[in-house]
Amino acid sequence: QGQLHESGGGLVQAGGSLRLSCAASGFTFRNYNMAWFRQAPGKEREFVGWIGWRGESTNYADSVKGRFTISRDNAKNLVSLQMESLQPQDTAVYYCAARSAYMGGAVANAGGYAIWGQGTQVTVSS
Question: What are phi and psi of 76, to 5 degrees?
Answer without folding.
Answer: -105, 0
